[in-house]
Design brief:
With 142 residues, this protein is of the alpha/beta class. A three-stranded parallel beta sheet has the order 2-1-3. The chain has a two-stranded parallel sheet with strand order 4-7. Strands 5-6 form a two-stranded antiparallel sheet.
Length: 142
């Protein structure tokens, strides 16, 4: 049984890096190369959408239903991630995953801190939100 959950890359820099990475397939790891050889391109697949224009980002914020949104976190201090958090952090059906460090004193660190117990998160411009979404830090294997 397959899932048809859309995946959105909502990060201008992330989109540019993805394009560059796609052209460097000779440097991919074994698993990625095997997927591509089987016709299952690891970064170009069905239900993957690029959010390039700001108006499309705004439409994504209003979207209902399940989705995976990939947005650069910047420790949650600026950029498109802040608006995603404002819209989704109070919904316990959502998860937030960080791949990278979240410095002390940032909203990103607070999200991790309060992921195991209720807390309130101070976002950009002093806006306070109750965190109900699960925050999790992903640690990549070498």
């Amino acid at each position: 049984m397959g899932f048809n959950i859309p995946v959105f890359i909502d990060s201008p820099l992330g989109l540019e890096i993805t394009k560059i990475y796609s052209r460097l397939s000779e440097y991919w790891d074994k698993e990625a190369k095997e997927l591509k050889a089987k016709g299952d391109h690891p970064i170009d697949f069905k239900n993957l959408y690029s959010v390039e224009r700001f108006r499309d980002h705004k439409r994504l914020l209003e979207m209902e239903g399940p989705a995976i949104v990939i947005a650069g976190s910047g420790m949650c201090t600026g950029g498109r991630i802040v608006e995603h958090l404002k819209e989704r952090i109070e919904d316990s059906r959502n998860d937030i995953f960080f791949v990278g460090y979240q410095a002390k004193g940032t909203a990103g660190r607070d999200i991790l801190k309060y992921s195991k117990r209720p807390g309130r998160i101070k976002l950009v411009h002093g806006e306070i939100k109750a965190q109900k979404a699960l925050g999790e830090e992903l640690r990549l294997k070498d």
